[in-house]
Hints:
mainly alpha; three-stranded mixed sheet; 17 helices; 3 strands
Amino acid sequence: MPLAMDDKNLGVNELEEKGQLGPEVGQSSEIGIFKEGLRVHPEPTADPLDPLNWPRWRKHSILAIVMYLYFMFTYVTTNTVPSFPELQEKFAISYSQVNWTVAIPALGLAVGPLFWSSLADIFGRRIIFLTGTLIAFAATLGAGGANNYQGYMAARFFQGFGVSPGSTVGMAVVMDLYFEYERGQKLGLWVLAIDTGLLVGPIIGGFIGLVSADWIQWLTAIQFGVLLGLEFFFMPETLYPRTYMLARMPVEISGEAGLEKVADQKKDPAAVELSRTTKLMALNFRPVPGLRHPKAWDALVRFVLTFRYAVVVVVVSVYCFAWYWWLLCVITMIPAAYVQYSPQIQGLLFVGLLLGTLCSEVLASGTLSDRIVTKLAKKNNGVRLPETRLWLAYPAALLSAGQYKFLLAFDIVGI
Length: 415
């Protein structure tokens, strides 16, 4: 049923109330679209505005922007580490206090997703990316111009808060763009961005610190400015009303068909008068139409409800504490452990970790994960199981075990 002009920006609930949605909405299509003998998920539509149907160059360019933001996610926390001595002198603070300048933006990174996630499911990914990056840009200018410790810490918190959409919202963008069988590789690249940001930060910060500690923030502000421009001009909305559009614009193939045939089934996007993806306004402050929208506080509620599952909470907490405690301890203790070296040499000490991170993406993640999942799915009657991605965690855990000797050495020498 065509939509009236006044109905083009309504959500699913409102359209149901106006009688614009038929009973077929929410029902799965009987069309079978397969890749390597396995049914693809999500199910694509015949809509050229469907992110799954976008050309690869557009998908990859959006992925690069998402990776850029996720790179900055950890880059802003660690790029100041080589300048710790200068920050101590500037603000007349102790080493423990200067360590908090890494912890405070990390707090913003932790709190931010609880605020942004539900909003991204209501207003879309694009406006959240733009808003978060703008906040991070402004906070970085504040950090660069701060004259006291309190102002610097406040700016550092909002740096983390502003860049935090790169995590949950960034993952949602990857899910919008790619089929399930592609996601191991794409999410591997996405995770590579946060890992490299963590390690590249001190390397760049060490050399920029030759100018001044403030210039570390000015360079970061330039990086956020470039990112803001890329988001505005090259990142369209990816949140897509798939259930609604599958009922209006399905791929018309009888029986089973290969994924390559979907490209031949594209229809005129104007056939459905619903504003979506690239047809939305450049700055969209209204809920994305055609979707059931969560409440703004739903992400926080889901987080709290997770604590009902003790096994999940314990495992995730142990992993996060062990991993991030170790990594941040290594990063923040480098200036104290190697005081005989200049900040530039201290930054270069992270090159080994960076190379190890790059090798792990090639050897124990990404494409290999996708291949394992596909192989095991074929043995499981074509059903993909999320836990099959865990197989690569075992060799990674064994290789990482020896790295804790670094912190043990700290304890022995009394640092």
